[in-house]
Amino acid sequence: MSVALITGAGQGIGRAIAIAFGMRDTRVVVADMNGPSASKVKQEIEDVGKTALAIEVDVSSEPSVTLMIKRTLEEFGTIDVLVNNAGIYPSTSIEELTNQSWDRVIGTNLTGPFLCSRAAVPIMLEKKKGRIINLSSTTAFRGAQNGAHYAASKAGLL
For 43-65, how does the pLDDT look when each residue is reduced to its tens digit (9 = 90+)? Predict the structure, then answer.
């Protein structure tokens, strides 16, 4: 049975991805910055007799990502699929966009996938197999009103 780690899996697209993997007899790591939301999705997967682990994580923090990978390996022994889905989009005009808000969005949406991928790759290389899926957005190509930071992060991911 394979193991899929999905970031941003506490709601929205990430939740749907986590549940879809769970229905395919994959052990699922539901990783999200909102621990209670991750736990709720974990419970949804377990309620249908499947296996899941909820982990609260800040993907923009290397120590947090390291802990997520460590807990995943302790629980499931491997990672076969990493889905970098975590993302934030606080709507802010360029005139009001602070350095702190810029850094938070870039940290989550662009640095996060880098940190998660860098942590998962050695596991996959050792097994000589694995998949990393990065979710971006059409906003990467067309931009968005009040979303320069989001568009930049998603374009960077591409």
Answer: 999 999 999 999 999 999 999 99
Nearest to 65 by CA among 57, 56, 53, 76: 57
Question: Which pLDDT value is given to residue 25?
Answer: 85
Residues pairing with 115 in the sheet: none
Q: What 8-state DSSP symbol labels residue 24?
A: T
Alpha helices in 5-147 (DSSP H): 12-23, 35-46, 62-76, 99-106, 112-127, 139-142
Q: Is 48:71 a contact under the CB 8 Å cutoff?
A: no
| Residue-range domain boundaries for the chain | 3-157
Q: Which residues are annotated as catalytic? A: 150
Residue 28's identity, in one-letter code, is: V
In angstroms, rounded to a whole number, what is the distance separating the alpha carbons of residues 138 and 146?
15
Q: What is the CATH number of domain 3-157?
A: 3.40.50.720
Q: How far is CA 73 from the centre of its chain?
A: 17
Give the chain's length.
Answer: 158
Please give the pLDDT value at position 10. Answer: 98
Amino acid identity, position 113: P
